[in-house]
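Example 9 (inverse folding). The structure is encoded as follows.
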């Protein structure tokens, strides 16, 4: 019984999985989601990410287990790198999803560069309804901070709605 109650404690709304080359996109996304009041786990965030002297794989696994949703910033960098930790993170969440009888957990792939999900078994059943392709093509791996606030919020509107935030009254720039 104790194991069951520990599993159901979801301390984070979102876990963000990404390749390190695309950290600017993960960071900007985390900042945006936090501005809407969501609790986000990202490996490089002070306080909620990986802390000094902690075992990296254990901390990542704990972050995934404590998260309601996993956002995967999907790109060719992940698809073509079979050794990427992102694959391990996806498989960890996939196992949690398989055992989730509450329906609380979910995957939300965000397509950065147009790389199809259909040939990647772990995510093929999930639709990448959110795309940052046009912005990513324009600004590249490290360019998320260059995206104007108007463009950015227009691009992430669908994601914010998927995460249950429907009534955005005002976005300050």
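The amino acid assigned to each position is listed next.
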């Amino acid at each position: 019984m104790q194991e069951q109650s520990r599993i159901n404690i979801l301390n984070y709304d979102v876990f963000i999985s990404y390749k390190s080359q695309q950290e600017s996109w993960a960071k900007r996304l985390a900042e945006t989601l936090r501005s809407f009041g969501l609790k986000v786990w990202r490996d490089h965030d002070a306080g909620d990410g990986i802390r000094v002297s902690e075992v990296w794989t254990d901390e990542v696994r704990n972050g995934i287990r404590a998260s309601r949703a996993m956002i995967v910033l999907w790109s060719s960098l992940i698809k073509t790198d079979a050794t990427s930790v992102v694959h391990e993170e996806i498989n960890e969440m996939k196992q949690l999803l398989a055992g989730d009888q509450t329906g609380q957990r979910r995957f939300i792939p965000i397509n950065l560069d147009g790389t199809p999900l259909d040939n990647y078994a772990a995510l093929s059943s999930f639709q990448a309804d959110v795309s940052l392709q046009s912005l990513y093509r324009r600004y590249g791996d490290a360019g998320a901070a260059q995206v104007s606030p108007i463009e950015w919020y227009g691009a992430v509107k669908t994601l914010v709605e998927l995460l249950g935030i429907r009534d955005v009254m005002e976005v300050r720039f």
